[in-house]
Amino acid sequence: MNFELDDDQHAAAAGARAFFTGSASAADARRALDGGAVAPGRKALADVGFLGITIAEPAGGAGGRVLDLAVVAEQGGTVLAGPSLVTAGRAAVLLADQPELLAALADGSTAFAVLDGPADGSAPSMDAAGADTFLALDGGALVVGSGEVTAGTPMDATRGLASVRLTSRRVLLEDAGARWVTARQVAMVVLAAEDLGAAGRAVQLGIDYAKVRTAFGRQIGSYQAVKHALVDAWVGVEQLRSLVWWAAWAADSAPAELPLAAAAAKAFAARTLERAAETCVQVHGGIGFTWEHDAHLYWRRAKVDRLLLGDEAEHLDAVAELVLAGALQR
């Protein structure tokens, strides 16, 4: 299977890159840590059509695929954009038979978040800090409602993490277990795509600095220790790219492969982004450890994303179980 992007997808990536670089930056992620708004923000993402990429056209979306969303999400990850397109992709699956709610998601008029954990006191959930409407699994039922939001001190403010206790709820689907699992797997794919973008940017920051910083009369990039560290991080990024495109393709075209592909992509994304961010910090030396440099922002994203939607160990266990059960023999 060839997982290279086609010309239309490359064009979509270029358009998304232009949008995100013009509307968000690591500087915005830094300001968010001091209480500033995340950028580009929900309204801007809705206006450009990114929140509705996987929503059907009759409900106000673009009728696109998970792969289309992943292509855009990668570009958002490069600038640590918020809110996350993970929430849009996950909510679109959960609200598949709710056209009015889908329309509100696509046009940004309702700020959704999907809760992980009990509806009466969720775990910290993505984009919950800025949301007003929450989707949760209550028993086996999919519910929507308002909630009491408790946000802590963020390590990465762009993720909008907060715990929520629902104060009202309406049942959308009684037996929603299977849909919930699928939506979580799609979310894992989109999160891995955002991490792909962040990891690639962290490696590029290290490469750019290694070309201009000198030590003992030579560019530091000429030293093997620096070269090897950057190459190892870059190889991880390219390996992750293949996993992300496979997982996104599986979400669209091979649902039987999605559990394995999503778990593999999420597990490897956690490791890859962490390595890339730590390499970026190390290559920048003393300045890499300072608040003023952007390197720590990618490190923060890595440490937070490592635990979102399940940690690396959980997903490696899932991969092992699926492989032993014959998932690769289909």
Overview of this protein structure:
By secondary structure, the chain is α+β, with helices and mostly antiparallel strands. It has a domain at 179-329: Butyryl-CoA Dehydrogenase, subunit A, domain 3, CATH 1.20.140. It contains twelve helices and eight strands. It has helices at residues 7-23, 26-33, 42-47, 66-78, 85-94, 99-106, 177-212, 224-253, 258-283, 285-288, 295-305, 312-324, and strands spanning 112-114, 133-138, 141-145, 147-150, 163-166, 170-173, 214-215, 218-219. It starts with 6 loop residues before the first helix and ends in a 6-residue tail after the last helix.
Short description:
By secondary structure, the protein is of the alpha+beta class. The chain has helices at residues 7-23, 26-33, 42-47, 66-78, 85-94, 99-106, 177-212, 224-253, 258-283, 285-288, 295-305, 312-324, and strands at residues 112-114, 133-138, 141-145, 147-150, 163-166, 170-173, 214-215, 218-219. It starts with 6 loop residues before the first helix and ends in a 6-residue tail after the last helix.
CATH topology of one domain: Butyryl-CoA Dehydrogenase, subunit A, domain 3
Sheet-strand content, in percent, reads 5-15%
Question: Taking strands numbered 1, 2, ... along the chain, how are they ordered across the largest sheet?
Answer: 1-2-3-6
Shape: globular
The whole-number mean of residue pLDDT values reads 96
Calculate Rg over CA atoms: 20 Å
Give the biggest beta sheet.
4 strands, mixed
Element string (H = helix, E = strand): HHHHHHEEEEEEHEEHHHHH
Just give the CATH class of one domain.
Mainly Alpha
In CATH, the homologous superfamily of one domain goes by the name Butyryl-CoA Dehydrogenase, subunit A, domain 3
CATH level-two architecture of one domain: Up-down Bundle
**How many DSSP H or I helices?**
12
Poorly predicted segments: none
Distance between the termini: 14 Å
**DSSP E strands, number:** 8
Helix content: 55-70%
Q: Which structural class is indicated by helix and strand composition?
A: alpha+beta
